[in-house]
Design goal:
With 334 residues, the protein is an all-alpha fold. The protein has helices at residues 5-33, 40-50, 54-57, 59-71, 73-82, 84-103, 111-138, 157-181, 184-211, 217-224, 228-232, 234-251, 256-277, 288-291, 295-322, and strands at residues 142-143, 146-147, 280-282, 286-287. The protein has a single domain, classed as Formate dehydrogenase/DMSO reductase fold, CATH 1.20.1630. Strands 1-2 form a two-stranded antiparallel ribbon. The chain has a two-stranded antiparallel sheet with strand order 3-4. Helix 6 (84-103) runs antiparallel to helix 7.
Length: 334
């Protein structure tokens, strides 16, 4: 039996992207919430909650982007010119927040500048990711195996909506992470923010989901056509169930279930994208198999991935295990 290498690699890259979104999402969310929490000590506590894991979380972004370049070069060559501006904005945002992690602790007089760099970089990165996602979902014009659109095609009302939706969603992840990892004032403030961010995220998911089928007849068929609807309908039903768990957990002041429910919302939205996209890697233009590199290249890369991905999973799990429990303003865990 021959392996379907393009399909295997599509699954691996999809997993890497999902891992990045749910892991780096909450530490981006902590940065997004930075302006909403006052007090140097409280902000120290927020930053310390993600300091041990934030750089490891971004490993998945490198794996996803690098994997796309190596495994699906045609898709990379089409997507990058189409999304160059939001992707560059995302990378600049990640640079600013990464530098702020290191420099914020080195100065007192200029600390407010690094606070804003951390917050601004997080907001810019989250919003740019959402805009890029929206531009990808709405479709990329392709002619002769090349991008055929203009410089500003990524900037549309739909992409702006997805940018706002992802930023608010990251804020929800950040708030529920702080509920899980902190105590006292920061935790109370995180509950207050989550009570606003949770219904806002659910509403924005609904708006994006209702708009998406009208972007393309293929999406409409996938979600409402028979028998495709039988595969699609469990996703919105699961979103409703998870939303109930999230809101109930916040109302009952639980610590773990709101965070897990927030992660589940992101996973379900990602599955929804898969329902809309598959088998295309560039929506409605280029399939997974058409964009893939030769099989001998995919086999060679798969051997490396078989070693690398378990190592990443192992050190990620170990880091989260070591830094389990609550965090305080001086970086201690207990």
């Amino acid at each position: 039996m021959t392996l379907d290498l393009p399909l295997i690699w599509a699954g691996l890259i999809a997993f890497a992207v999902l891992a990045y979104v749910i892991l780096d999402g909450f530490d981006l969310g902590v940065g997004i919430l930075f302006p909403l929490v006052r007090g140097e000590r409280h902000r120290d506590e927020m930053m310390n909650s993600v300091a041990p894991v934030w750089d490891g979380n971004e490993t998945w972004l490198v794996l996803g982007g690098g994997g796309l370049f190596a495994v699906f070069p045609l898709a990379f060559a089409i997507i990058m010119p189409a999304l160059y501006a939001p992707i560059m904005a995302m990378l600049l945002g990640l640079v600013f927040r990464g530098v702020a992690f290191e420099f914020r602790w080195k100065t007192r007089r200029g600390q407010f500048l690094w606070d804003w760099a951390f917050a601004g970089g997080s907001i810019l990165a989250g919003f740019a990711q959402g805009v890029a996602l929206g531009a990808l979902v709405q479709g990329i014009p392709v002619e002769g195996r090349a991008y055929a659109g203009g410089w500003w095609d990524w900037l549309t009302p739909f992409s702006l909506l997805t940018g706002v939706a992802l930023t608010v969603g990251y804020g929800l992840l950040g708030a529920t992470w702080l509920i899980l990892k902190t105590e006292g004032h920061v935790q109370r403030r995180a509950y207050d923010i989550a009570f606003i961010a949770a219904p806002a995220t659910i509403l924005l998911i609904g708006l994006v989901s209702l708009w998406t089928p009208f972007l393309n007849t293929v999406y409409a068929t996938r979600w409402f056509g028979w028998p495709h609807v039988l595969l699609a309908i469990p996703v919105p039903l699961a979103v409703l169930g998870v939303s109930y768990v999230l809101l109930r957990g916040l109302t009952e002041r639980r610590e773990l279930s709101p965070f897990l429910a927030s992660l589940a919302l992101f996973v379900l939205c990602f599955i929804g994208l898969g329902v809309s996209f598959f088998p295309h890697i560039v929506p409605n233009s280029v399939t997974i198999w058409a964009a893939a590199a030769p099989d001998n290249s995919l086999t060679f890369l798969l051997v490396g991935a078989a070693v690398l991905i378990p190592l990443i999973l192992a050190y990620t799990a170990y880091a989260y295990w070591v830094f389990r429990g609550k965090v305080n303003s001086v970086g201690g865990y207990h």
